[in-house]
């Protein structure tokens, strides 16, 4: 009896277990038949129905992915799937807990499976690996997929976080409303040269200056109330009030960043990527797989790029669609600083050692020289470019160029930002201790005013070689001595020419050329300075020319230092403007060698280009252009305190 009751109990348990198993199998089967897959609003017919296991939707290897434009290869021997679309690639071996996307291992929440003899893959992971957006609609029992192509429609035609031209200039400043966000270093390093700086903000109407980040940032973009930038170990965003600092990518090698509505475009060591910022879980999509990308810009659905150049070969210039298709090369062209405006690609290039700005049609064709200049920016259909310290503006073809500001000083390479009619640039000096210091400055082109952007006042610039060893005592001694010489040598009733002659004669009569040290190539530092000329009465050409300049400045005679070649070596002398005409003055060559005390020559006193060129080499056209620009720019020159 007991045995029979025990057998009956075991039978009931077995029937219960079998019932659960059958029920479970029935549930999976029902889910198989009830799930639909919809891509961009269209139902996809699959060879095998989707299967849901542990809340993960599995679909056949092919079908959906081919519908998304993904090419699939299956290696039976290694049980490995290789999928690709444009430059984006994925490799997965069945059973692994990770896949390799663009050769980077990424953990999968669920591995692929073989179900009823078919390879089934987790749809969300694989779909998002190729830019698709996957949503499970439990009510409709549908997998809703938005393809990469559909999502790309939200990309703006051109950058929205900063102008493409400002980002070509290293994006060290950006503006939103009345707020200006910019970079500035407390110590060394040029933010304008791409080194990055600390992130500050300031209201253009004045007010408190706020430091947002005490770490290096580069390539500023502002979108809504977020600032996007490149940090030392990836791409970040931070609220404009300084809160919610978030790292978006792990890409320490990035050097360029463009924000285009809800998308980022950036470079890494293996190419150019894009990332959708407003979709949780979105993966970076590689647009261009190329380890040699030097620069790129984005416009109207295309990425325009340039490869590195080396001593053996000039880099390729080309473009590729933002979906990674249709890679087109323009050829090997030695262009720099690419930006696209309208129907043209604009760039810097070098022509016979001369910096020029050029452009070529975006569809390819002959390039066109626009202007000779050292750097450029584009704003409101206007081309801005630099010559020396002077900024010009012109039509987009380089015509009707006119000077608009003299910035006085900036680092090389020339980079400047244009925002709402103002130019932002970095001014740098070496202080009296020989230490580098820089600060960000601005100038409004209409109001002709400007100043330090973040309130940092630079120290007085140390004039190299004017005084020795940054010695304050010797500096004061020289300054007082120079003023005394002018008081004793120059009378108020003298004409400008007589004043120039009196100071020229004083230097020649009271200075001996350091000839012995010149012959032995042992010229001491002091002989290159004003201190050597005035106090020790011994100097070489640089000391003569610098002293001449200081004395002429004290009597308000317009003059400039000039460098060239004479007697087979580098040489310095003065250029003097008298009655609207410029002349050369070389006090060094008017002083006999070996020294003949009291004797003065006038062979090189206020002489013309033609006469000076008989035994001195110099850039005559460059001098004329420089003086003409300074003459034109008298009304727009801005001095910053």
Task: Present the secondary structure layout.
Blueprint: H1 2-34, E1 36-39, E2 42-43, E3 51-53, E4 56-60, H2 64-67, E5 71-75, E6 80-85, E7 88-93, E8 98-101, E9 104-107, E10 113-115, E11 118-122, H3 123-129, E12 133-137, E13 142-146, H4 148-151, H5 164-168, E14 173-176, E15 179-184, E16 197-203, E17 210-223, E18 226-231, E19 234-239, E20 246-249, E21 257-260, E22 263-268, E23 271-276, E24 285-289, E25 293-299, E26 302-307, E27 316-321, E28 328-332, E29 335-341, E30 344-351, E31 354-361, E32 368-372, E33 376-379, E34 382-387, E35 390-394, E36 402-406, E37 417-419, E38 422-430, E39 436-444, E40 449-452, H6 472-489, H7 496-510, E41 512-513, H8 515-520, H9 530-534, E42 538-539, H10 541-554, E43 559-566, E44 569-578, E45 581-585, E46 605-607, H11 609-612, E47 616-617, H12 620-632
Parallel strand pairs: 1-13, 41-42
Antiparallel strand pairs: 1-2, 3-4, 4-11, 5-6, 6-7, 7-8, 8-9, 10-11, 12-13, 14-15, 15-16, 16-17, 17-18, 18-19, 19-20, 21-22, 22-23, 23-24, 25-26, 26-27, 27-28, 29-30, 30-31, 31-32, 33-34, 34-35, 35-36, 37-38, 38-39, 39-40, 43-44, 43-47, 44-45, 45-46
Helix pairs in contact: 7-10
CATH topology of the largest domain: Neuraminidase
Number of discrete domains = 4
Kindly estimate the percentage of residues that lie in beta strands according to DSSP: 35-45%
Give average pLDDT, whole number. Answer: 84
Mind telling me the CATH class of the largest domain? Mainly Beta
Architecture per CATH nomenclature, i.e. the level-2 architecture of the largest domain: 6 Propeller
Number of strands: 47
Helix content: 10-25%
Radius of gyration: 35 Å
Low-pLDDT parts are 1-32, 461-469, 632-641
Largest sheet: 7 strands, antiparallel
Question: What's the end-to-end separation, in Å?
Answer: 111 Å
How many helices? Answer: 12
Structural class: alpha+beta
């Amino acid at each position: 009896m007991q045995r029979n009751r025990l057998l009956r109990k075991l039978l009931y348990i077995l029937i219960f277990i079998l019932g659960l198993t059958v029920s479970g199998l029935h549930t999976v089967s029902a889910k198989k038949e009830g799930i639909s897959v919809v891509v961009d609003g269209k139902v996809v017919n699959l060879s095998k129905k989707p299967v849901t296991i542990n809340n993960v939707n599995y679909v056949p290897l092919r079908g959906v992915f081919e519908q998304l434009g993904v090419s699939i290869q299956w290696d039976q021997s290694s049980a490995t799937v290789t999928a690709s679309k444009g430059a984006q690639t994925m490799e997965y071996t069945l059973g692994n807990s990770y896949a390799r996307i663009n050769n980077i291992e990424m953990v999968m929440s669920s591995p692929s499976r073989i179900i009823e003899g078919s390879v089934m893959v987790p749809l969300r992971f694989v779909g998002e690996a190729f830019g698709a957006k996957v949503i499970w609609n439990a009510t409709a029992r549908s997998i809703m997929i938005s393809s990469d192509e559909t999502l790309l429609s939200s990309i703006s035609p051109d950058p929205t976080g900063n102008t493409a031209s400002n980002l070509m200039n290293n994006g060290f400043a950006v503006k939103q409303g009345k707020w200006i966000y910019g970079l500035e270093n407390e110590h060394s390093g040029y933010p304008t040269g791409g080194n990055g700086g600390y992130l500050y903000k300031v209201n253009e109407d004045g007010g408190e200056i706020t430091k947002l980040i005490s770490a290096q940032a580069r390539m500023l973009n502002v979108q809504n109330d977020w600032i996007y930038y490149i940090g030392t170990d990836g791409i970040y965003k931070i609220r404009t009030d300084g809160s919610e600092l978030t790292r978006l990518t792990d890409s320490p090698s990035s050097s360029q960043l463009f924000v285009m509505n809800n998308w980022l475009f950036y470079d890494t060591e293996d190419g150019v990527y894009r990332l959708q910022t407003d979709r949780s879980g979105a993966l970076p999509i590689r647009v261009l797989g190329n380890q040699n990308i030097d620069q790129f810009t984005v416009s109207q659905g295309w990425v325009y790029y340039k490869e590195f150049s080396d001593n053996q070969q000039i880099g390729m210039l080309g473009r590729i669609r933002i979906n990674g298709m249709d890679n087109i090369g323009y050829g090997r062209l030695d262009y720099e600083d690419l930006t696209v405006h309208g129907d043209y690609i604009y760039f810097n290039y070098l022509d016979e050692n001369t910096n020029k700005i050029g452009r070529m049609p975006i569809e390819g064709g002959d390039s066109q020289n626009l202007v000779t200049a050292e750097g450029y920016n584009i704003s409101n259909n206007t081309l801005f470019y630099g010559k020396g310290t002077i900024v010009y503006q012109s039509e987009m073809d380089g015509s009707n160029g006119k000077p608009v500001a003299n910035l006085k000083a900036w680092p090389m390479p020339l980079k400047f930002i244009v925002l709402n009619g103002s130019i932002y640039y970095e001014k740098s000096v070496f202080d009296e201790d020989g230490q580098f210091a820089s600060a960000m400055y601005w100038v409004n082109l209409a109001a002709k005013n400007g100043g330090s952007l973040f309130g940092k006042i630079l120290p007085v610039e140390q004039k190299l070689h004017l005084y020795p060893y940054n010695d304050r005592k010797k500096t004061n001694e020289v300054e007082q001595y120079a003023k005394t010489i002018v008081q004793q040598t120059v009378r108020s009733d003298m004409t400008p020419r007589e004043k120039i002659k009196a100071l020229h004669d004083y230097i020649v009569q009271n200075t001996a050329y350091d000839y012995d040290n010149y012959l032995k190539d042992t010229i001491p530092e002091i002989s290159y300075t004003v201190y050597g000329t005035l106090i020790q009465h011994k100097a070489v050409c640089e000391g003569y020319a610098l002293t001449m300049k200081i004395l002429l400045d004290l009597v308000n005679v317009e003059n400039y230092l000039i460098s060239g070649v004479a007697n087979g070596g580098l040489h310095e002398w003065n250029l003097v403007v008298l009655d609207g005409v410029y002349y050369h003055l070389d006090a060094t060559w008017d002083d006999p060698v070996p020294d003949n005390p009291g004797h003065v020559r006038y062979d090189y006193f206020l002489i013309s280009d033609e006469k000076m060129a008989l035994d001195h080499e110099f850039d005559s056209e460059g001098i004329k252009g420089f003086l003409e620009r300074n003459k034109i720019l008298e009304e727009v020159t801005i001095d910053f305190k």
